[in-house]
Amino acid sequence: FLKSPVGYDRAAEVVFKQEAVYLHDLEDRVQTKRVIKDWNRFYNSERPHTALGKRSPDDAFFYTQGTQKAA
Fold it and tell me: What's the pTM?
């Protein structure tokens, strides 16, 4: 989930560490997987992105898809 269409996304890695990893005392693999899954869902469906006009990637993608279908 840290790859952009052109390769490795360093900015996403930094955000992930700041918003997920550093906020939890990860003790085992099960907890780590849960934190990653929860953060990934939040990042794509709820977290506003400046580059997307303060929309989440899901909102931006599905809005674009809906617009294209209607045209």
Answer: 0.64
Could you give the CA distance from residue 34 to residue 37 in angstroms, rounded to a whole number? Answer: 5
Residue bearing tokens 């809005």? 63
Q: Tell the residue number behind the tokens 């997307």, with chain if given.
A: 52
Q: Which of 69, 67, 37, 43 is nearest to 57 (CA)?
A: 43
CA distance 57 to 49: 7
Residue 34 confidence class, pLDDT cut points 50, 70, 90: very high
Show the DSSP H helices in 1-71 as ranges: 10-19, 29-45, 57-70
C-beta separation of 53 from 60 below 8 A: yes
